[in-house]
Every structure is written in structure tokens, then in C-alpha cells.
Specification:
This protein is mainly β. 5% of the residues lie in helices and 51% in strands. Bound molecules: calcium ion (2 copies).
């Protein structure tokens, strides 16, 4: 991973001393830079645009090009994301006046590889911008993607960013490969971020309802407590792979909810049905 410290940091550290450590941002450069071409135009990527067009953005009736960047953000998994912004530039490649050219910025689940399917991979629109060549020759954008990035980091360490033309015709533009993910994260918590109730299953045996609640994804030896909507509660410590199987007997028929709390502060709930 390539981490470049926020350029302003060296200038501000003297003024705010240790306090600045808590709010220091990292600039992450993309590890994957690609542009994908859709022709025949059916919403699915067909080929990659090779150098010098790895940032090509274009939309016409017969063809479309979207640009993607993927960032290795593994270092931020399991940490509170205080802010995440995408700072980049789109420059004109052909300055023909086809009206204002507008774009959406999306965030999607990356995988560290360029894929034709990144073209149509579903994402969350986190911002939009426009410029108007030939008077404008480039546009700098800075969009807040905090919530979308925090959500993605629950499921993996690669953040995909896609720029997609939203006006048509939109003649060739280039997304700068220097587009950054600027991320501010707090210290890792004691939680893994993956704590969850893997299952909560109620079965009847010999006329007695037994509920089994399985806790997974925790830290080895962390404490837990499981409380049912009936009021029954069990507490203990996770095993050495961060799991526990918690059993309850003699439950009434019908639906209920199991609420789990881990010692690190994580919580999860799951509904169950007893015969
Ligand atoms: Ca296609
Ligand atoms: Ca990908």
C-alpha cells in the first residue's frame, strides 16, 4: 500500500502539536487505474481502454466509457472512519463544445484488480460535478464519501471509485490517475467489526423448546452476554477463535429476539421462532 501523508500536515503540526495526531488525514493513491469501454452500448463493459486512455470518460449514443480507481484501504478496516473524501480532476481531451459535461462519482466494492464488470458494478453515488469545455479545460472535484466508505470497509479493504458521465453527448475527458482517497480514521477499537449472531435456531426435543445462539467474528476470549426478549440471559467468554455457542431451554412457542452484546461494545440482534 502506498500512503502519502496529507501535504499540509508538516506545516500545521507545530501549531497544534499532539492534538493534530487525532485528526491527521492520509492520502491514499489508487492501486488500480482503468477505463472500461461499452460498445455495443448495453450497460455492460466490453474492453479496457489502454494507455494513454486509462482515465477515459465519454458517453455517446453508441458507446460509453467509465473510469475506475481502486484503493487499498485495508489499514482502515476495523477503525472508526471520521471522514473519507475523494479529490480528483477531470481534464478535457477533446474540447468540442457539446454543452456542459456532467459526471457522477460512485463508490463500489473493489477487489484490487481491474475488471470489465467494474463498469456496471453497483455503487453509491457520493457526488457529482460538471464543467463546460472549451472555456473550461479541467474541473477539480472534492466529494464527501464518508458513509459509503465506512459501509464498504465493513465488508473488505478495497474501495472502488467510479466516474460516470451523466450527460450525453459527453465527448472525451480524462480522469486524473492522481485522484486521491483522503481518509481520516480513529484508532482501532477492540472489536473486530465482524461480531455477529451467526444463527439463532429454536428446535423442539422431547416436548421442550431449545434455542441455540451462535456468536461468531469476535476476538478470542472477549466477554459476551445474550438476552432474549423473554428476559432470559446468559453470559460468558468467547473461545479461542472468537466464537461461542449459547443454549437456552424451555422457551415458549412463538417468535422472539436474541440480543447479543460483546465486551468490546459490539451488538447484534436476531429473530427466532420456536415451534
Ligand atoms: Ca457492451
Ligand atoms: Ca475491480
Amino acid at each position: 500500500m502506498r500512503l502519502v501523508r496529507f501535504a499540509g500536515h508538516a506545516l500545521t503540526v507545530a501549531a497544534c502539536g499532539l492534538l493534530c495526531d487525532a485528526v491527521m488525514a492520509d492520502d491514499v493513491s489508487p492501486a488500480v487505474i482503468a477505463s472500461i469501454h461499452d460498445e455495443p452500448r448495453d450497460g455492460f463493459g466490453d474492453t479496457f481502454n489502454e494507455s494513454p486512455f486509462e482515465g477515459l470518460l465519454r458517453q455517446q449514443s453508441t458507446r460509453e466509457d467509465r473510469a475506475v480507481l481502486e484503493y487499498d484501504a485495508e489499514a482502515y478496516v476495523g477503525r472508526p472512519i471520521l471522514s473519507a473524501r475523494i479529490l480528483g480532476r477531470v481534464s478535457v481531451n477533446n474540447a468540442f463544445d457539446n454543452g456542459p459535461r456532467s459526471f457522477n462519482v460512485l463508490v463500489y466494492a473493489g477487489n484490487g484488480a481491474r475488471d470489465l464488470a467494474d463498469f456496471e458494478a453497483p455503487g453509491v453515488v457520493v457526488g457529482s460535478f460538471s464543467y463546460h469545455p472549451p472555456n473550461d479545460t479541467f474541473i477539480d472535484f472534492d466529494v464527501d464519501a464518508t458513509d459509503a466508505v465506512a459501509d464498504l470497509l465493513q465488508g473488505g479493504g478495497w474501495i472502488g471509485v467510479k466516474v460516470d458521465c451523466s450527460s450525453e453527448p459527453n465527448f472525451p475527458n480524462i480522469l486524473s490517475p492522481a485522484t486521491l482517497l483522503r481518509i481520516e480514521a480513529g484508532e482501532p477499537s477492540d472489536c473486530t467489526g465482524l461480531e455477529r449472531i451467526g444463527k439463532a435456531k429454536c428446535k423442539q426435543r422431547n416436548g421442550v423448546n431449545k434455542l441455540t445462539v451462535k456468536l461468531t467474528g469476535g476476538l478470542a476470549d472477549d466477554d459476551y452476554a445474550v438476552t432474549l426478549s423473554s428476559g432470559a440471559t446468559r453470559a460468558g467468554a468467547l473461545d479461542d477463535v472468537g466464537e461461542a455457542v449459547v443454549k437456552f431451554k424451555r422457551l415458549p412457542s412463538g417468535a422472539g429476539t436474541a440480543d447479543a452484546t460483546w465486551g468490546c461494545g459490539a451488538t447484534d440482534s436476531r429473530r427466532y421462532d420456536c415451534p
